[in-house]
Amino acid sequence: MLMKNLSILPVVGLALLAAGCQSEPSAPAAALGSIDTVALKRAYAGETEGKAVSIYFLRNAAQMQVAITNFGGRVVALQVPGKDGKPTDVVTGYNNLKDYLSQPEAYFGAIIGRYGNRIARGKFQLDGTTYQLAVNNGVNALHGGPKGFHNQVWDASQPDAHTLVLNYISKDGEEGYPGNLSVQVTYRLSEDNQLRIDYEATTDKKTIVNLTNHSYFNLNGDGDSTILDHVLTINADKFTPVDSTLIPTGILQDVKGTPFDFTTAKAIGKDIGASDAQLKNGLGYDHNFVLKPVATAGLREAAVVYSPNTGIQLTVLTTEPAIQFYSGNFLDGTLQGKSGKKYMHRSAFCLETQHYPDAPNQPSFPSTTLEPGKKYQTSTVYAFGKH
């Protein structure tokens, strides 16, 4: 990947940025509104494969701020106040663009597409035609392939301090997917600490689409050693069991009586060490949870998680039918984050709203097919509060 005139500003959490890039490890809450966005954009500006890379900030009066780069639409930092008012950066990431470019496989904070999650052996059929995708996860395709949306520079516009709009055109045949796909992803930060992500896409040829965001969270703060103390509820009575390559078997299994029962709040670490074939396959939780059906369309509560330590609570709402809960099983201490600490085993979790994995090969699953003249449209909200 070619890089030209790349000037990097370390992003060691938004607290440091709010202090005007001084050397202090953190900034008081009162300083949160003092970010010099223009200076930071200039310092972070660069160019990759002929396209400009920048960093953008969303902020509100409630002392929440979000930093997003148009390289992969990645949420680089997300700062919210805890129960003591202390600003806490709750997402993982790197402190420079160079690390995002050289170590993209963790997908930290990125837009995932064209197809989030796995497709068995990287193959699917549409109208009798077999399409072969890039295989990048054992024998399977994962998260759109190595040159998926997480590795693209998106066109960005920021109409106001609360909104960032990203656009990307995925060309016919990119990573094996059919059709020219025009994608728009809009981030909006509300005054009540809700980060909303709206996804839209259209195509000129029948294709498949399943978009999501792959932020890794630790509500104790970025770089904390564990998320096993976090208390989680998932609004799902069923999940989709997987084989040894993490492809769904096609069965919808009841969570009741299994370690996958998060219908009432429990610590993530409570059952993660249980003797269970599914936990063995995923090396922990890395499974698609089928959200309970609702009578009306629109946003519904998918999951709630909080940290007893900081009191920060995250509620995930979505229009999608499912959510992938991943407990950071493949983090192994080899990646060093923006805090200077290494990301250890199960030191972050993901809650990825989605359609089901491998849906193009499983007719009983909700369809992920998009046809010309139709619009793909989904929304997800990450709402932050205090427990």
Brief descriptors of the model:
single chain; 387 residues; mainly beta; Beta-galactosidase, Chain A, domain 5; nine-stranded antiparallel beta sheet; five-stranded antiparallel beta sheet; 29 strands; 35% strand; disordered N terminus; Aldose 1-epimerase; GH-type_carb-bd; EC 5.1.3.3; carbohydrate metabolism
What is the topology?
Layout: E1 3-4, H1 13-18, H2 37-44, E2 46-48, E3 51-53, E4 55-59, E5 65-69, E6 74-81, E7 87-89, H3 97-102, E8 111-112, E9 118-119, E10 123-126, E11 129-132, E12 141-142, E13 155-160, E14 163-170, E15 181-189, E16 194-203, E17 207-208, E18 212-213, E19 231-234, E20 236-240, E21 253-254, E22 266-267, H4 277-282, E23 286-291, E24 300-306, E25 312-318, E26 322-326, E27 350-354, E28 369-370, E29 376-386
Antiparallel strand pairs: 1-2, 2-3, 4-5, 5-6, 6-7, 8-18, 9-12, 10-11, 13-14, 14-15, 15-16, 16-29, 17-28, 19-22, 19-24, 20-21, 20-23, 23-26, 24-25, 25-29, 26-27
Catalytic activity: alpha-D-glucose = beta-D-glucose
Subunit structure: Monomer.
EC number: 5.1.3.3
Explain this structure to me?
- It is a single chain.
- This protein is mainly beta and 387 residues long.
- Helix content is 7%, strand content 35%.
- The model is unreliable at 1-35 (pLDDT under 50).
- It has a domain at 224-370: Beta-galactosidase, Chain A, domain 5 (Distorted Sandwich).
- It is globular.
